Amino acid sequence: MKKITLFALSALTIISCSKDKLENETAQQNFNLTTIIESNQKPANSILDNTVEGLYRGVITTNDVSFNAKLTINLGNDGFYNALATTNEGLEVGFMAMSKSDLKSSTFQFKNDSGSSFDVEIVDGEAKVFNVLINSQFGKAQVYKETSSRGVDVVLGTFLDDADATFGGTWNLISTNTQVILVPSLFGGTLPVTVNIISDVVITKNDGSTYNDIVFEDIPAGTGCGAFSPLTDQAPFYTGIQNIGGFIAINEFALRNQSVNFLGDNCNYNFIFSKFAGNLYYNGDCTDAINGTWNWRGRTGSIFLNI
User: Fold this and answer.
1) For residues 201 and 218, is the Cβ–Cβ distance under 8 A?
2) Are 157 and 169 in contact, with CB atoms under 8 Å apart?
3) What is the spatial distance between Cα 142 and Cα 146, in angstroms, rounded to a whole number?
């Protein structure tokens, strides 16, 4: 899946007009974490859907994987320019945008009073994050544009070699689309369920190397593990916590028999979890598991997502 197009044709006009606004708003907005949190929780501004400004969401991870967080970047969505990183443990790290010498280059620099920082640049119509520095550690980030009609959702996770505790890192999911699928009902017929289609699996090893899986294998119709089985061929998805039919609690993850290339060799992985079936994990052949699994070059290990 390609990254969300940011309509580069309008970029120069919008960013040029934003230079004075960014300088004024940055001066007016004190570094207040509560203000930044509130700013980044606001919905995407529909007026900015077809511009380079607005909300961007994704992940930010240091090369030593000591810091792994959801990242929201606010480029004037509510008139302010700031960013917020939130970890699974609830740590929230705020950033303020500092104008660069030439905003016509579509480049923004974000900093905080702890010395952490990163830059955002619009390159070929896409948002690129670079020069990441968190807690004195270099890192990387991946973000996608959120619009008023299309949200971006993130699930954070980690992975570990079952036999080598020095071999591990982060395993994060990004969804940029939703889909309504039909699943069998316990009482006959089907039920519609809105799911998050997985767009990008961002994997960072603890040596700083990062890999992206953006090409996924469909799950064949009727072969989902557990009781939650889509009726048609289905792209990998997760549901998030929700109720269907008004009383059935679900939180399903379906990444079955997937693969991604690491250094010329395929890494095969599965993350299949069903709250509906009783909080059970499954292997790719639908046998019971205790967590997500991966194998690569003779190594085998576990995947742990924040479910």
Assistant:
1) no
2) no
3) 13
Residue with tokens 């395929």: 266
Structure tokens at 291: 């967590």
Amino acid type, 253: F
Report whether 258 contacts 216 (CB < 8 A).
Answer: yes
The closest of 107, 7, 128 to 58, measured between CA atoms, is 128
Contact present, 237 and 251 (Cβ < 8 Å): no
User: Do 292 and 268 form a contact (C-beta atoms < 8 A)?
Assistant: no
Grouping H, G, I as helix, E, B as strand and the rest as coil, residue 20 is: helix
User: Three-state SS for 15?
Assistant: helix
**Which pair of tokens denotes residue 72?**
């929201």
Q: What is the DSSP letter of 290?
A: S
d(CA 56, CA 136): 24
CA of 206: how far to CAs of 21, 170, 259, 278, 305, in Å? 40, 8, 20, 33, 17
Helices (H), the chain: 11-28, 33-40
Blockwise average pLDDT, block size 10, the chain, 307 residues: 32 39 45 88 94 93 98 93 95 85 67 94 82 97 95 98 97 97 79 94 97 94 72 91 85 94 95 92 93 97 95
Partnered with residue 168 across adjacent β-strands are 160
DSSP per position, 138-205: EEEEEEEEEBTTB--EEE-EEEEETTEEEEEEEEEEEEEEEEEEEEE-TTSSEEEEEEEEEEEEEEEE
Decide: 236 and 216 in contact? Cβ < 8 Å: yes
What count of other Cβ atoms lies within 10 Å of the Cβ of residue 268? Answer: 14
Residue with structure tokens 């008004």?
246
